[in-house]
Write a structure and sequence with these properties.
The chain is an alpha/beta fold. It has one domain: NAD(P)-binding Rossmann-like Domain (Rossmann fold). Strands 3-2-1-4-5-6-7-8 form an 8-stranded mixed beta sheet, sandwiched between helices. It binds NADP nicotinamide-adenine-dinucleotide phosphate. The site of NADP nicotinamide-adenine-dinucleotide phosphate has 28 residues, from helix 1.
C-alpha cells in the first residue's frame, strides 16, 4: 500500500458488505475513514469496529440526500480517495420520491452527483483517486438513451447490468475530464461476493441468489481486496479511466469503451441532476 497514514477516504456503502471490509483494511493502514450508509444503527455498529471512523447517514438513492451529504463533506480539509460503492438490485421497478427508477438513482446517479460535487475537494487534494465499484454484469448491457430508466421494459438484472455499464462509462468520462489534475478514476469488479447484496428483495428473488452465493461466492475479505488495491496501491497515481476485474486490468465490453456514449451519459446525468 502507498502511505495511507492520515489520508482521508470516503466509502459510500461503507456500513456493510465489500465497502465495510475495504474500510477496515484502509483504516488498518492508517487512513481516516468516513462511511456513508442509510441506516444509522448499522452506521454506529460499523464505526465501533473501525477506530477513528465517522459515519454520515444518507439515502443515496435521492439526489437531495447526495447534495446534503456533499455539503457536509465540503468541510473536509482534504479528500484523498472517494470509493463509490453503495449499490443494490431491485426485483420490481420502483420510483424514488424524485421520480427516478431506483437502480439508476442509486447505482448511477449517486456516483455521478457525489463525484461531481466533491471534484474541487479532490483536485485540491491531488494526487487523489476515485474508485467506482462496477461489475462484470455490465458485459451484456446496452444503454438505451431513449429509455435509460427502463420505463418501457424493466427487469431487475437488466436495470442492474445497465447501471454497472454506467459506472464504467462514468469512470472513463471522469478520467477524460480530470486529465492533468492529478485525480484519477477507475472502475472495478470485486468478484461474486457473499454479502447482503440482493437480500432485501422478495424471496422469489433473494432465495436463489442466496443459494448461489453459498455455493460459489467469494468471501467479503477477498471482494474488498481489489477496492483496497485501487485506493492504495503505489504506482497507480497516473492510471486512470481503466477497468479492473478483481486484481487485474481488463478490457470491458465494447459498449463500455464507447466514448461518445460516456459523454452523452454525462450530459444526460447532468441534466437530470440539474448541474
Ligand atoms: N456482491 C457481489 O457479488 C457484487 C458483485 C459485483 C459488484 N458488486 C457491487 O459492489 C457494491 C457493494 O455491494 P455489496 O455486495 O457490498 O452489497 P451489500 O452487502 O448489500 O452492501 C451495500 C452497502 O450499500 C449501502 N446502501 C444500500 N442502499 C443504500 C442507499 N440507498 N443509500 C445509502 N447506502 C446504501 C448499504 O448500507 P445500508 O443498507 O445500511 O444503507 C451497505 O453498506 C455494489 O455497487 C454492487 O453493485 C457486488
Amino acid at each position: 500500500m502507498r502511505g495511507m497514514m492520515d489520508k482521508t477516504v470516503v466509502v459510500t456503502g461503507g456500513t456493510g458488505g465489500i465497502g465495510f471490509v475495504a474500510a477496515q483494511r484502509l483504516a488498518a493502514a492508517g487512513a481516516k475513514l468516513i462511511l456513508v450508509g442509510r441506516d444509522p444503527q448499522r452506521g454506529a455498529a460499523a464505526v465501533e469496529r473501525i477506530p477513528g471512523a465517522q459515519f454520515h447517514a444518507a439515502d443515496l438513492g435521492l439526489m437531495s440526500e447526495v447534495r446534503r451529504l456533499a455539503a457536509e463533506l465540503a468541510a473536509l480539509p482534504r479528500l484523498d480517495v472517494l470509493i463509490l460503492n453503495a449499490g443494490a438490485i431491485f426485483a420490481r421497478r420502483e420510483v424514488t420520491a424524485e421520480g427516478l427508477e431506483r437502480t439508476f438513482a442509486l447505482n448511477h446517479m449517486h456516483y455521478f452527483l457525489l463525484a461531481n460535487l466533491l471534484l474541487d475537494t479532490l483536485k485540491r487534494s491531488a494526487p487523489a483517486r476515485v474508485v467506482l465499484v462496477a461489475s462484470e454484469a455490465h458485459r451484456r448491457a446496452r444503454l438505451d438513451f431513449d429509455d435509460l430508466q427502463c420505463a418501457r421494459r424493466y427487469g431487475a438484472w437488466r436495470a442492474y447490468k445497465r447501471s454497472k455499464l454506467c459506472n464504467i462509462l462514468l469512470a472513463r468520462e471522469l478520467a477524460r475530464r480530470l486529465h492533468g489534475t492529478g485525480v484519477t478514476a477507475n472502475a472495478v469488479h470485486p468478484g461474486f461476493v457473499a454479502t447482503d447484496f440482493g437480500a432485501r428483495n422478495p424471496s422469489f428473488f433473494s432465495v436463489p441468489l442466496a443459494l448461489a452465493k453459498r455455493l460459489i461466492a467469494i468471501a467479503p475479505e477477498a471482494g474488498a481486496r481489489p477496492l483496497v488495491n485501487l485506493a492504495a496501491a503505489p504506482g497507480l497515481d497516473s492510471v486512470s479511466g481503466r477497468y479492473f476485474d478483481r486484481g487485474l486490468e481488463s478490457r470491458p465490453s465494447p459498449a463500455a469503451q464507447d466514448d461518445a456514449a460516456a459523454r452523452r451519459l454525462w450530459e444526460e446525468s447532468a441534466r437530470i441532476a440539474g448541474l
